[in-house]
Amino acid sequence: MARIGQLIQLAILMCGLSLVVPPSSVLADETVSEYDIAIDLATMLQSARSIIGGNQDLINDPTLGDKGLSAAVVRERALEKFSAAKGGAMPDLSGDSLKSRLLKAQVDAISKVMTEHQETINQPGIAFKGFVPAVFARLVNEEFKRTMGEEAEVKVTAPPELIRNRKARPDEWEVEAIRNKLSAPDWEKGAIFSAEATGNGRPAFRVLVPEYYSQGCLACHGSPKGELDITGYPKEGGNLGDLGGVISVTLFRK
């Protein structure tokens, strides 16, 4: 079982689960900047996604029923990981600021996705449940968009040639930024790209947080290119440290 679980973990498109927390940038009036809000949304998604990734053996254990990964448990662990990534600061989920409202909606989306998929997660007799971090992140982002789409969107995407799910396709701005910025030879690895740009035809502040292939990712995304991986997809021929995807955050302006 452990070997199966390890292989399943390697089948995740966005396998760079390290938390990215760049230096804070706060406006002169001490209100939180759009950049900080976007980074917190990316960090919260990474925090929750890493819990799903770290529990693939448990989720896919066919001998167990209740896995103990309730919405409350995942929510608590995600908040703990977020706090650790932010130097011990817990997010304010009760305030009226844009940051508080967006983070609350995101945490609520995490809880809702976990609640709605308890039957799948806890189903005995089935090994691979299909509830991998990439799927979890997409579902959370879709629920977040449903409630907060007029104000913000969060999306996990990648260079077009690496996309395995059409729902994750990058838009024109993301494609250009990935190709001309994040993939440029002189781009500092790990550096985050942000800019004022349109999103869905609306003025917005947009941020791309890059994620890179780790050694484990290469079992599914490495060489030989074209060989089918454990999930049945052809390998991309990627190398260690290659850009594998981005978390794209859009904050719409009125």
3D architecture notes:
- The chain is of the alpha+beta class and 254 residues long.
- The chain contains nine helices and four strands; from the N terminus they run H-H-H-H-H-H-H-E-H-E-E-H-E.
- It is 40% helix and 13% strand.
- The longest helix has 21 residues, at 34-54.
- The N and C termini lie far apart (51 Å).
- The model is unreliable at 1-14 and 16-30 (pLDDT under 50).
How large, in whole angstroms, is the Cα Rg? 18 Å
Helix content: 40-55%
Which overall shape is indicated by the principal axes computed on the Cα atoms? Answer: globular
Largest sheet: 4 strands, antiparallel
Distance between the termini: 51 Å
SSE run:
HHHHHHHEHEEHE
Please give the count of helices: 9
**Averaging pLDDT over every residue, what do you get?**
88
The number of E-state strands comes to 4
The quaternary organization reads as single chain
Assess the beta-strand content as a share of residues. Answer: 5-15%
Ranges where pLDDT stays below 50 over 5 or more residues in a row are 1-14, 16-30
* Strand arrangement in the largest pleated sheet: 1-4-3-2
Structural class: alpha+beta
List keywords for this structure.
single chain, 254 residues, alpha+beta, four-stranded antiparallel beta sheet, 40% helix, globular
Topology:
Layout: H1 2-9, H2 34-54, H3 56-59, H4 71-85, H5 98-116, H6 118-121, H7 133-148, E1 152-157, H8 172-182, E2 193-199, E3 202-212, H9 218-221, E4 243-252
Antiparallel strand pairs: 1-4, 2-3, 3-4
Task: Please provide a brief summary of the model.
This protein has 254 residues and is of the alpha+beta class. 40% of the residues lie in helices and 13% in strands.
